[in-house]
Amino acid sequence: MAHGNGIPCCPVLALLVMVTFSNVFLFGVMGDEYVSAVGDPGMKRDGLRLAIEAWNQCNEVGEEAPNMGSPRAADCFDVYKSTSQLEGENDCSFCSKFPHLLVHRVTEDDNRLGVGTPFPGGQKEVLQNVDLYAAQKELYLGYKCQVPDKPKPWQFWMIMLKSGNMDTYAAKCPKNGHKIGPYGPDNQFPCFGKGCMNQPLIYHNYTTLQGPKRTTLKGRFYGSWDLNADLSRGGDNVQNISYYSVTWEKELGTGSWIFHHVLRTSSKYPWLMLYFRSDATHGFSGGYHYSTRGMLKIIPESPNFKVRFTLNVIKGGGPGSQFYLMDMGSCWKNNGKPCDGDVTSDVTRYSEMILNPETPAWCKPDDPKLCPPYHTFPNGTRVHRSDKAHFPYDAYHLYCAPGNGNHLEEPNILCDPYSNPQPQEIMQLLPHPVWGYYGYPTRKGEGWIGDPRTWELDVGGLSHNLYFYQDPGTPPAKRKWTSIDLGTEIYKAPDQVAEWTVSNFDILVKLRK
User: Which spans are transmembrane here (predicted)?
Assistant: First the structure.
């Protein structure tokens, strides 16, 4: 680990030694060998790599928040051990006071970069485009945080923020990838008026060594979508405003990072999202049509991967909180080919397991429009949604079809055409016995408030058997999941609070024999 590297105690501390290393962890699971797909298996690396991003309703920036810069920031550092400068010298007062030192790779100036300000590697043609600037800034932060590894380098875990507010009269969001003009009113989307799609305030407490022995690593991102919010005291006890906070903490040399999340909605911002993501290190990630940076040095592909993590839900966020035990995102066209950036033919595919026991099944035997056309059991048996005796209706909250599908089975409901830059297809699952084979909860309440658990989910096996639309006669898409995440989406419910912790996160892919 990086904290084993020595830095002379006195008098020079400015020299940064670049350290190259590789994390390779092999696991035996039921006779198969697995390797970690993430750069930081189990979140155990002292030298943290973490970033934060914020999106508007259609996964763009639209407009930067005042004095905040582009809504991308990072906290990336290495840990070095202080040593005496002279060989044989045992006394070093500085070393005894500060046995470990953190060297941050990303400065406050980097994090505050905003549209119009050039930076290394930034293309001149994007300097005045607020959306493209944010995408380029993410690549720049990734460059500063990147860790050499095999089979490829990686950059950071990603915290994702999103607001569901949408000003339909501002015409900022495309419809299924096509530009449209102003329209409205549309009660589907909350909006208090002009400016309702603003980006949040993002404040940052850089990671430092804390505690009586300076062995506790701790840092934080926090903020609000209410641009006049006074967060000078941190915001935890400020009422009647939107708020988010992610605090990370770890003991040097032992255990996992623990990421503590808080999300609060308000009357002005009733639809908010906060996710902890493991994204692709290059190419597109789920819901994002620009080149991305992330933690996935290997892209997991169905059916050959598992996801392991510890989750403790402290507050659920109310009945409108769609708390995702597991949310995975990918992108492929309706003909099965990989996405290429054409937002009119690319389709974002999501599968989400909702943990909140208050979430009902909207898939009904007498009204199947919100059910997938088929359910496939682990033994390969496939049943149609019209088979009332065998189709597990209560296992599905909803299924919605992509808006550019030309051969959709009737009846159907199309997915929201505005909340992604391209059409999307969404499969939302609920705890049910049919998912127990894959390690998922089998009844409502499992893993919820007061029931913290370490999960090992056969996400690859489950995602392999889920229904996703394809045009008839086309070869099956390779289901490669470029985003694996968890967190909550509080849906149009003001004054609700969700709180949870995540630790020990890992994605294990089966080695090919």
Answer: 12-31
